Each structure stands twice: as C-alpha cells, then as structure tokens.
C-alpha cells in the first residue's frame, strides 16, 4: 500500500457518493459500493484553536474507500482500491492511499 496526497477530480451522485474520478489523466468508474468513515486529523498542528462546535472538516477527515476500473477498459481488469479524502470547506478531493496488497505479484 502506498500513502501520499495527490489531487483527483471526483464526480459524486446526488447523495454525495463518489461515482467516477480522474487521476493522472485517466478516467475511472467506481465499480463497487464505496465505504465512508472519518479519521481524526492533527488540527492542533495547523490551527492554534479548533472553533467550538466545528466537527467534520475541522477535527475529522472524511475518507472514502472506492474500487475503480478504468472507464475505457475493454477487458475485465482487476479493480484498483483507493482511499480518497474530501476537504469539507473547499470540496477538493485528494488521493491518500493506493491498496495493492490483494493484487497477485509476479517475479
């Protein structure tokens, strides 16, 4: 699994779930139900004080785990599993993790 932070363009459903994304010039389609959770961020490193009642976006990161396939794939490739985060205030998306632990490795 690789962990980093890179900008991605995400298209969401009316309910706010990721449906497709563009990463590194390649279009991907979400092929399984995405999972969402929140992770605590180190807000005290970035801000001197968290506003009272701030909640999501100030104290927590919204994380989505999605499985995607290239939109132009002619064959049934193995899905790629990605963790994405959305900045609550700006609406910008970032790629946080690429999971490849379940992919078969060849020598």
Describe this structure as you would to a colleague.
- The protein has one helix at about 45; strands spanning about 1-10, 20-25, 25-30, 35-40, 60-70, 80-85, 95-100.
- It has about 110 residues and is mainly β.
- A 6-stranded antiparallel β-barrel has the order 1-2-3-5-6-7.
- The relative contact order is 0.26.
- The mean pLDDT is about 80.
Structural class of the secondary elements?
mainly beta
Strand percent estimate: over 45%
- How many helical stretches? 1
Helix-strand pattern, N to C? EEEEHEEE
Described by the principal axes of the CA atoms, the overall outline is: elongated
Return the domain count.
1
Query: Which strands sit side by side, in order, in the main sheet?
Result: 1-2-3-5-6-7
């Amino acid at each position: 699994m690789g962990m980093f932070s890179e900008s991605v363009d995400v298209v969401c459903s009316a309910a706010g779930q990721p449906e497709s994304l563009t990463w590194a010039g390649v279009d991907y389609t979400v092929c399984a139900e995405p999972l969402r959770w929140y992770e605590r961020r180190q807000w005290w490193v970035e801000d001197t004080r968290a506003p009272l009642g701030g909640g999501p976006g100030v104290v927590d990161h919204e994380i989505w785990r999605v499985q995607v396939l290239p939109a132009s794939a002619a064959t049934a490739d193995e899905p790629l599993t990605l963790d994405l985060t959305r900045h609550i205030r700006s609406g910008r998306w970032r790629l946080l993790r690429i999971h490849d632990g379940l992919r078969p490795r060849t020598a």
